[in-house]
Amino acid sequence: MRIIKINSKLEIPEIEMEWSYVRSSGPGGQNVNRTNSCVVLRWNFKESQSLQQIPLSSTTLEKLQRISTKEGDILIRSQTFRDQERNYHECIDKFIKLLTQVFHIPKRRISTKPTQTSKKKRLQSKKLHSEKKNLRRQKRFDE
Fold first, then answer.
1. What are phi and psi of 107, to 5 degrees?
2. Which end of the chain has fewer CB atoms surrounding its CB within 10 Å, N or C?
3. 39-51 residue pLDDT tens
4. Is 88 helix (H, G, I), strand (E, B) or coil?
5. Residue 45 sits in a domain of what CATH number?
6. Mean predicted lDDT score pLDDT of the chain
């Protein structure tokens, strides 16, 4: 039994996944018409035992529902290569990449204030720019 590691908290056994092989429309010429080289991975996150063991936030559940079917199946298809094995490995890579993005929690930004030096530099550059513009103006003489 192979286990696919998504992050430090989540590991999904391959038993939870359903694999199917269909005819590909990708490269391969006549080979495409004879072999089932396209690989389709189906994983139901609602019935997954590995997901039930970790607490899921509402944001994560929302992301999972957005990328899945109504039944909760996430479908990943690979038909880049001519043979099943390479497409199979590419499917697993796509699956890991997708779930890594779903479970990624962005760091919270800590707001900072500009330093006094940066404020002075900004005001100085504004003053120089203003002087440059003023020098370009035409002088009016009252006659």
1. -65, 145
2. C
3. 999 999 988 888 8
4. helix
5. 3.30.160.20
6. 88
